[in-house]
Design a protein that fits this description.
Layout: H1 7-24, H2 42-49, H3 56-67, H4 78-81, H5 90-93, E1 98-100, E2 105-107, H6 109-119, H7 131-142, H8 158-168, H9 179-185, E3 190-191, E4 194-195, E5 206-208, E6 213-215, H10 217-227, H11 238-250, E7 260-262
Length: 263
């Protein structure tokens, strides 16, 4: 007669396997970097590829309008970066996050925009989730469309990168999971109607089909934390900034797709 096991035994076995897999995640590396684009449906790809269907391009237009506005000191972004941003350097955009010598710390592209918004235009600081900041970030990163991500993890950036990496492999929430379980171990598996990707950031800011809105990376991270039933961090937190450094560097070599379309 086949032996019957109690539900408790099955649950214990599940958590044991989960623990073993978690212990292996630091050595599970993708032999090939694959953009999240390859994990979405053909219909979603069509939306991303079509400038008229892709909702992100209306956000880019809003960003251009803001870009061309005059600051409190009568200075415009175009004074430095040219008409409609034609003087932006794609390779430089692709290097964010990078170390800011004046601030003596790493900055994301959002941080750099905020810095210029306040220091160069003398405007009042924007909230980190302000739609104007999102629009500017989307517009500027789109200027590097097709450029390969190239975050430089130099001596000054290394401690922040390592902190972000440690965060990536830390388990959180009632689900007791870390980022790697979805984006390294179970890549390609289905979860809630969507295929799990490698979790790269080359498409951000991007349009989410599920929420029908544009999101930056910290906003998406907060959504992930809520899915884990975990207490999340502020968008402008050091934890999320360090994680962004690690994630962007982890995707070095992938082409920027902003504005991407994802689930």
């Amino acid at each position: 007669m086949r032996k019957q096991y109690s539900p408790f035994t099955y649950i214990t076995f599940f958590f044991l396997i989960n623990t073993i897999l978690c212990s292996l995640t630091p050595i599970i590396l993708h032999a090939e970097l694959i953009s999240g684009y390859e994990f979405i449906s053909e219909q979603a790809k069509e939306i991303q590829n079509d400038d008229f269907q892709n909702p992100g391009f209306s956000v880019i237009e809003n960003g251009l309008d803001i870009y061309n506005e005059v600051g409190e000191n009568e200075v415009q972004c175009s004074n430095c970066h040219g008409l409609n941003g034609n003087k932006f350097i794609p390779k430089s955009i692709a290097q964010f996050p990078k170390f800011h010598e004046i601030l003596d710390k790493p900055v994301t592209l959002r941080d750099q925009i905020q810095y210029c918004w306040v220091e160069r235009l003398e405007n009042f600081p924007l909230l980190y989730d302000d739609i104007q900041l999102l629009a500017l970030e989307t517009m500027i990163r789109n200027k590097a469309f097709g450029e390969k991500v190239n975050v430089d993890i130099n001596e000054k950036m290394k401690p922040y990168y390592e902190a972000g990496k440690a965060f990536y492999f830390t388990r959180f929430g009632q689900m007791d999971m870390n980022c790697s379980q979805c984006h390294d171990i179970y890549t390609g598996q289905m979860l809630r109607g969507q295929k799990l990707s490698q979790g790269h950031t080359n498409g951000f800011p991007l349009f989410r089909l599920e929420s029908q809105k544009m999101v930056n990376l910290p906003q998406r991270l907060r959504e992930c934390f809520r899915s884990l039933r975990a207490e999340t961090f502020e968008q402008n937190s050091d934890e999320f900034r360090n994680l962004e450094i690690y994630l962007n560097a982890r995707g070095n070599g992938l082409k920027i797709e902003t504005p991407a379309v994802r689930y």
